[in-house]
């Protein structure tokens, strides 16, 4: 058999798929006609035919009602969400979101309606038909059937209540946790799309200036991931890779042509080559995020400049878009110092991509936890249903219940710990929810990154060693969880011990030096301008303890950036301590017996000893910025720490400090591995996960090429852009787990408004790219990109 449909099969498929009406008729009519035969026979040819003392016409009439009521109940449950939305929406538009819950409860509602109709029609048809004398009692078999129908109704009501609880947990949880994150991230993608439109208007795609960046941005096939260190130049590998890139460009062009044809037919515009589609595709990979950030930054910055200012964006977008330009600049200027560097731009764009992946992965994992909870509650419903049937059918139910209760009481000691763990885990995940996927948290003294969330446990990765750690949620429920990713700007305190003879003027000089360091233009992006130094202890008057407090301009979620900033600050502190100078406890004095502090003996005369000691003291005093014997007033400003050393030694030290503190701004080793590890769905929870990240030298080569200055010509004028209209996003309500038994959201929170046509760019599983015909130009919708394996399929994230 080749598996192809026959002519009859094709006719059947056409009838089934023609409409809902034809499909339901095809399902209902065959059995309904079969059941109608005994009714017709009992009403005409065999009027006295009976089954169990009841004429077959009434018995099969009830069976026919049972069969038809199942489908009528299903149709009623299917249309109930629309009726609810129409009626209740007039009173309160915020209540209409619960129509999604009713839609997800279609099957439980259908079963409840079916059982109710079957129970209510059984007794009247059996006892109140024209052939049964008045006052007749139910026969034994009728009593059993009525008890079974009553038990079924109660069981279906319990099943309906269980599904309703799960739906309310899902809809309230998602609306509480992800609504603000999704709205903020979609708005950021909209702003990036606006900037990309302006960038391509000045420098068309694949132009000579940004050809390399455009190949990386539009790398849907991830061809850049196949390149190896040291390859690509002179090896001949660039030619086939470029050819495959061009094949992808040709495919996008063909798709755009079909999109224009669809536009003429449907009246809706679909364009996968729009700025929005390109941006969302680029946000899938860190390498593409870095290339996108570099293209945007260099196309807006004036030639010869090294920073992006608000006036640059206003000048490119034009005075008519000044408000949007100011909004774009404010969203990208994370440190608020009035300009944007290339590293800052890369960091912001990569964080937008990570935020999208975090939301998608967290929603997927939490929905899996909801699915597990649903399975546990379904087991409880099944056990309760058994007792319901026993209660309806067993006359000595009290005795049976007492026996079963004794057995359950004896087993409660076995399942008590398990029930406590399940309940505590549910409260921890759905009520407290202290973290999401990819968050950097601190548990006691452990620094961890969240890798996977389940109902009963969470998998973390240690920041310092990369080891995978699985911790039960019931244990985490009793711990203090410090979420670094959700924190705002963080501060750091460093304690140092110094010589007790250190003067207050020296401490003030140290504060001035560190203040000059954090207020320097190159460091003001990382640190806030406040430096606090306090004396917190003097021990036994043999040393002083100083506490230096600096304030970062962001949190420490990105371990790579945190390590670079701390190393930079510590290097500056070391240079400042040497420069003042400030010595450690017992330091600064000459060694006993040396020329600076000789011991009196017959080997030298007292005059010579005093002379040598005075010379050492004079040299020591000459090293101070503020002399101890002569209190001179000095301005509280100074050059950046270490910049006023002279000679080759000082320059070499500065170069060493700069090299030591150089980090890749778009790479976060602590969190990026979480996304790559989720691509392998077949791996176990604690399996070894190997990332596919590029070598550090290769990624760094993309960002630190020959030129990192602006490329916008001096005489460039504002570009002509078609207005982009940002669509309104409905509030996030519920996210269905992997099956269709949960309520979908009111609309695709990462997708288009209702009634739009979907079309996703290659590899983009986060959301479709949509435009209405009355909404110009491409790129006004939102979406995102994560690896398809990390995104749940369903109405919320169209596959």
Automatic annotation (TrEMBL):
Residues 320-355 form the EF-hand domain. Residues 638-651 have a biased composition (Polar residues). The keyword Endoplasmic reticulum applies. Keywords: Calcium, Endoplasmic reticulum, Membrane, Transmembrane, Transmembrane helix. It comes from the Eukaryota. It is found in: Endomembrane system; Endoplasmic reticulum membrane. Residues 743-755 have a biased composition (Pro residues). Coiled coil: none annotated. Belongs to the MscS (TC 1.A.23) family. This is Mechanosensitive ion channel protein. It comes from Tothia fuscella.
């Amino acid at each position: 058999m080749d598996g192809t449909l026959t002519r009859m099969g094709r006719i059947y498929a056409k009838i089934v798929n023609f409409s809902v009406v034809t499909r339901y008729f095809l399902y209902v009519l065959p059995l309904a006609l079969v059941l109608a035969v005994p009714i017709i026979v009992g009403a005409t040819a065999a009027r006295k035919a009976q089954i169990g003392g009841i004429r077959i016409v009434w018995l099969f009439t009830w069976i026919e009602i049972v069969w038809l009521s199942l489908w009528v109940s299903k149709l009623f449950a299917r249309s109930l969400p629309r009726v609810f939305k129409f009626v209740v929406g007039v009173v309160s538009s915020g209540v209409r979101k619960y129509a999604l819950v009713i839609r997800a409860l279609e099957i439980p509602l259908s079963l409840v309606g079916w059982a109710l109709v079957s129970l209510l029609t059984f007794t009247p048809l059996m006892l109140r038909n024209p052939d049964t004398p008045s006052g007749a009692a139910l026969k034994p078999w009728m009593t059993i059937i009525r008890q079974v129908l009553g038990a079924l109704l109660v069981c279906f009501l319990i099943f309906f209540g269980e599904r309703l609880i799960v739906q309310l947990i899902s809809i309230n949880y998602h609306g509480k946790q992800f609504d603000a994150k999704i709205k903020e991230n979609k708005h950021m993608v909209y702003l990036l799309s606006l900037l990309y439109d302006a960038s391509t208007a000045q420098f068309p795609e694949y132009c000579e200036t940004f050809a390399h960046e455009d190949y990386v941005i539009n790398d849907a096939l991830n061809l850049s991931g196949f390149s190896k260190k040291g390859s690509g130049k002179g090896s001949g590998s660039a030619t086939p890779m470029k050819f495959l890139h061009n094949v992808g460009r040709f495919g996008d062009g063909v798709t755009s042509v079909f999109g224009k044809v669809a536009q003429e037919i449907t009246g809706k515009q679909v364009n996968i080559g729009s700025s929005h589609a390109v941006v969302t595709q680029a946000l899938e990979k860190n390498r593409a995020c870095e290339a996108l950030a570099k293209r945007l930054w260099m196309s807006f910055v004036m030639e010869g400049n090294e920073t992006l200012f608000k006036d640059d964006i206003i000048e490119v977008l034009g005075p008519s878009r000044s408000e949007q330009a100011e909004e774009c600049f404010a969203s990208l200027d994370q440190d608020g110092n009035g300009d944007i560097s290339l590293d800052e731009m890369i960091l912001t764009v990569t964080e937008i991509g990570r935020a999208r992946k975090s939301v998608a992965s967290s929603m997927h994992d939490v929905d899996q936890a909801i699915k597990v909870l649903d399975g546990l509650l379904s087991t409880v419903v099944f056990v309760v249903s058994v007792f319901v049937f026993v209660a309806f059918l067993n006359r000595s139910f009290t005795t049976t219940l007492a026996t079963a209760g004794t057995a359950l009481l004896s087993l409660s000691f076995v399942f008590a710990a398990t029930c406590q763990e399940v309940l505590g885990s549910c409260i921890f995940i759905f009520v407290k929810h202290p973290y999401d996927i990819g968050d950097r948290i601190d548990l006691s003294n452990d620094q961890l990154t969240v890798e996977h969330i389940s109902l009963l446990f969470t998998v973390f990765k240690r920041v310092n060693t990369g080891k995978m750690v699985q911790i039960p949620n019931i244990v985490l429920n009793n711990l203090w969880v410090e979420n670094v990713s959700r924190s705002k700007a963080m501060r750091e305190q460093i304690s140092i011990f110094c010589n007790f003879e250190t003067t207050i003027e020296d401490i003030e000089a140290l504060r001035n030096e560190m203040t000059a360091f954090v207020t320097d233009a190159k460091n003001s992006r990382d640190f806030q301008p406040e430096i606090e130094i306090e004396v917190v202890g003097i021990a036994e008057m043999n040393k002083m303890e100083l506490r230096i407090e600096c304030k970062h301009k962001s949190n420490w979620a990105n371990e790579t950036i945190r390590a670079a900033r701390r190393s930079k600050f510590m290097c500056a502190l070391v240079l400042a301590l040497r420069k003042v100078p400030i010595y450690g406890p017992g330091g600064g004095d000459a060694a006993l017996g040396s020329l600076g502090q000789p011991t009196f003996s017959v080997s030298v005369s007292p005059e010579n000893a005093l002379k040598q000691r005075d010379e050492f003291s004079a040299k020591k005093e000459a090293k101070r910025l503020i002399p101890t014997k002569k209190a001179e007033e000095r301005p509280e400003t100074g050059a950046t720490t270490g910049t006023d050393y002279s000679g080759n030694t000082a320059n070499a030290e500065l170069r060493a400090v700069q090299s030591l503190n150089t980090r890749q701004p778009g790479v976060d080793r602590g969190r990026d591995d979480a996304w790559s590890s989720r691509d392998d769905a077949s791996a176990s929870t604690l399996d070894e996960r190997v990332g596919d990240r590029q070598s550090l030298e290769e990624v760094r080569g993309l960002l630190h090429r020959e030129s990192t200055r602006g490329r916008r010509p001096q005489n460039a004028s504002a570009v002509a852009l078609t207005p982009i209209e940002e669509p309104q996003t409905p509030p996030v309500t519920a996210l269905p787990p992997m099956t269709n038994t949960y309520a979908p959201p009111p609309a695709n929170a990462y997708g288009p408004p209702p009634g739009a046509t979907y079309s996703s760019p290659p590899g983009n599983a986060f959301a479709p790219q949509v435009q209405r015909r009355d909404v110009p130009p491409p790129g006004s919708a939102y979406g995102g990109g994560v690896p398809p394996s990390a995104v749940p399929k369903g109405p919320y994230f169209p596959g």
